[in-house]
Amino acid sequence: MFDVRYEPVVINVLYIEEKRYFSLQLLDIFTNSWYLGSISNRTDGNYLIACEDWNGTIPPGIKNVVRLPASVILGLGRIQVFDSNSDIIAQSLTNETAFKVQTLSEFTSAQTPAIQPLSWNAPYHEARTANASTEEFFKVFNLIVQYQLLSDKDKEVLKDFERLHLGAGIEFSKTDFNEEEWSEIEEGAAEARNEILLSTNDFSLAENGWIRSPENAAKWGDDYLTRAQAAWFAPHINTIEEAVYLISAADSQGDTYNGSSKYAITFGKEDIPNVKYFWSITLYRTNGQFFDNPLNRYGIRSIDDIEKESDGSFTLYIQNEKPEADKEKNWIPAPKVSFSLSVRAYGEITKTVLPPVVRQD
User: Which pTM was predicted?
Assistant: First the structure.
């Protein structure tokens, strides 16, 4: 997390070989995204990251300036690993070494400005649960929204919420409302959570049982519902220029995936994603976490040693039990309970990535 309330930060991006995907995703409070890396700007050098309202002097040695409408910025680094055992370059590249971060005053050897410590407590995972504390969620909202520069539309919308004591920096407490008022607020919050959850089925057009990243992913503008849907189940989604996501939670019969069944997905030559870097298919538990298994295999990537037919086609097997030996290379271990699948395509070329239907095997 980058605190640029008082001064920008300078990020030094190392030279990373052309064939290796890497990125530093920079997110504002509303999860709109900007990037340093393979697709957006591959050049190594020093980049100054600032809030849009910063009007200081850009020092020598800065290659480019990235301005976000936020004074607290989340940074997520991704570096492609070709082989976890033998990829020496990847082993030496961590987010800390590939992206060296300094404050502007450190970069210029100037005096550090006096700052107030940043108070940050944003439990978005708790906010997604049915028993989430509405009061705590509103407190967090009032805390973090003060670090976002609001558009005119945002200001207009928030004006309607002032009567609920929602707004930048406002101290929120349910004790400011009588029992009947608070009951109505709780009811409204529960209805909103349900609407967001149910509407995730319409997050984007579904084909072959896969939901594809919306065209405005991580560039939400005033599309508040889609942004809320993404915050619910894909809070750090990339722009489609960076990586396309496809998510599936049910098989060809419409039944939710469950490890008590066995599944297969066959990629014909024409089904294989056409990408500049790589694609992957990953299995997630319903809580969004990986499924721990003896192989430490959480999915399969295009750069893995996949068993293929002579024409380049292949079948992946998703099940709890270890399959026959000739299928093990293509096996994605699954828990005995419900799960979902996610395909990511980094540097999509043809804009037509669409995995085949997943069938019970």
Answer: 0.85
